Batch of 2 targets.
Target 1
Amino acid sequence: MTTQEALFNYCLRLADNHLILGHRLSELSSKGPLLEEDIACTNISLDLIGQANALLQYASSVENKGRNEDDLAFLRHERHFYNSLLSEQPNHDFAFTMVKQFLIDAFNFYLFDELKKSKDLTISALATKGHKEITYHLRHSSTWIDRLGLGTDESNKRTQNAINELWRFTDDMFVMDEADKILISEAIAIDLNTIKPKWHNTVNAAFEKANLKIPEKVWMQYGSKQGKHTEHLGFLLAEMQHLHRAYPGVKW
Amino acid sequence: MSDNQGILWEVFVQTKPGLPHKHCGSVHGHDKEMALQNARDLYTRRNEGTNLWIIPASEIVASSPEDIGSFFDPANDKVYRHPTFYKIADGITHM
């Protein structure tokens, strides 16, 4: 694997994480639990899709094969998406959605903070810009963890249930492969092992404060870095890619 | 949509440091942080401001429309309350 191939792959991962999470969150648009929360979630979704767009543009220029960001977003198949398993999970109830957002926001918060120092100037610039938005996303989702955990018995139960269901996808975010190794040696990517303890502390502290617990002895699921996904991604892509595939090159 | 959208908060946005906060609308929220975040998402996403105040709508004391006569009319016929008889030095722009 050349550095260029590794960098292309790395950009796709960063972009896909944001694109799929952003698309999932956009499903709440007009269906949010409260009018204001509907707007908040749609705004966050737009932030994520905007960052994904910029990352895919960069991936496109790194690949240099004439595929633009739309081609990469709408014409790749499921096995060529590298978003984390966690990001593609369905929303279910609002507690489930917020736990998922929170776990990923905390991950993105530390990842993008480190990527500001990347030797690749485009990645460093995109990380600097993105980190401001992510800081807000984390503030938004962590206050919901508090509110739901300390709210009613029902809200605490649903939030704990979401954590129990989603925890098995968390290790998948930290998997590294050859692309990471190549880019870490060039100080372009970061070693995810360095952010894992910070992520774990943040998550654990937030859960403890909100009377919630990380489940013990969970069988971890992996696969996203090889394009192996849960059954949910295919349905998401079918919906997300439908318009572009039905009307190739459509503009409005 | 839930039946209970939380209490109503009034939102004040400061467009630039040093300028007064101006009332721009209201939001719902169940607590201070939620109301603040909602206000941010509704009113400051297009560079409208640098600072936000939110205040529970129920905490605002307001005069009522019936008060217009007794509160504000007496100002009309007392020209001496307005500093219009003074000469203002050149160069003073805002009085």
Target 2
Amino acid sequence: MDNIVEIKGLNKRYDRKEALRNIDLSIEKGKVVGILGPNGSGKTTLIKLLMGLLHPNTGEIRIDGQSPGVHTKSVISYLPDRNPLYSWMSVKDAIQMFQEFYQDFDEKKAEGLLQFMKLDRTMKVSNMSKGMKEKLNLALVLSRRAKVYILDEPIAGVDPVARDQILDAIIDNYKEDSAMIITTHLVRDMENIFDQVVFLGDGEIILSGEAERLREDRNMQIDGLYKEIFG
Amino acid sequence: MFKYAKYELRGTMKFLMGAIILALGASTGIQLFIRREAGNTLRYLGGMPRESELIAFLVVALVFVLIGSIIGGMVYLISSYRRELYEDRGYLTFSLPLSGGQLLGSKLIVALFWGTVMGISIILYNLILAQMLIGYNLFGELWKIAAQIDNFGFLFAGSVITSLMESAVTLLLVYFAITVSRVSIKSRKIGSLWFILFIVLTSIVTYIQEFIAKQLPMYLDLSRMEMIGQKEAYIMGIESQFGGTLSIQGVVSIPGLLFQIVLIAGAFIATAYMLERKIDIV
């Protein structure tokens, strides 16, 4: 087993509220892992802890053998659940920034993804719709040849056409030697791309395993299982 | 570090260039007013312009423009730092492979750069404009004054360095106060209490600096490049000045200056550590 992500005994508290409790999780290279759970279940907290945007109260995180920091940020390609790009930027500026900060950024790939997403380099971030910003951020994230991709709710809040475009881009650009972690509560749209799923509820892992195996054992789709657990 | 500073510079350019243009516009207005007043005075006094009064008014008005622009610029740069910790843009900034020191260093360099650019551009513009509009050779007058001062080069370099150090101390105390507030208080509204923390910190720092300067009376006279003691400092009337600042006579307290260096290093390391290890981007 070649684990790129290892989490042991992870706990995170916001003031008095426990956001994550005793999380243990290992993710192998080449796997697409779905972190599934309703709003407030701790999905984004877990992702932000992996990214080093939050700091755990207790527990350990290792990504590519190191704790979250400068190195792990250079090997993770992260799509947050909101638009992080600076409002003064154009598409061209955003590409230039990614190119300068990430050695694994592939400009040709970015060009192809921008064409696919129908985005112009001269467009200003401040003039874009929510869906366009989502597509631009995804294009930037997928243009990297990163060791780990982390996509936080990549299809939430976008129209069905943009949703299909985003899903196609994820499937087409997934690399077998990388790991991909995707959080979502829109399970039906995404379940076919997951190798492994983790059901997160109230800050705890309720169930996890290989997606195919869970389907066989429970004799239902992951979406059905999600409804059974959280319904 | 300079990679990020480049983006910080580009992000702040629009507002700060606007502030500089506004300040230059205000300067032009003031000088045009003085030019008109100079004409009136000439008529009123029958050929005897009250030049010194007008020049004094010009200097006071321009000092206000300069201070106003720099304060406006600094408030904007400080709010830009705060936005990193409280707004969505922090998701990008804190995802970049940058250490806390690199991030803080970039912010500090850009803030000092803009302060310097604003100061120099407003002063130079006004000197040139005064010569063109009023016919008063401020350059020449300043040059005459400079030529009379011994070791003017040392004095000038000393005043630039101490000004930069004082600006760095102030900015780092602001960044430190904002970061401590963010780490300890999650609410943005209550997080505005950083300003009170900054005032308290500044008071403590000023007190310590003055205390050290008084307890260890060792001064450097930049105009002579000589160390002077308590007695001479007392005669020159600089004994009660704040420790790290350059007095009007070109004398600086050595222990005060050393304290300032330690303070800059300490505030930088502590803030950089909190940015890297303690800040939660919620």
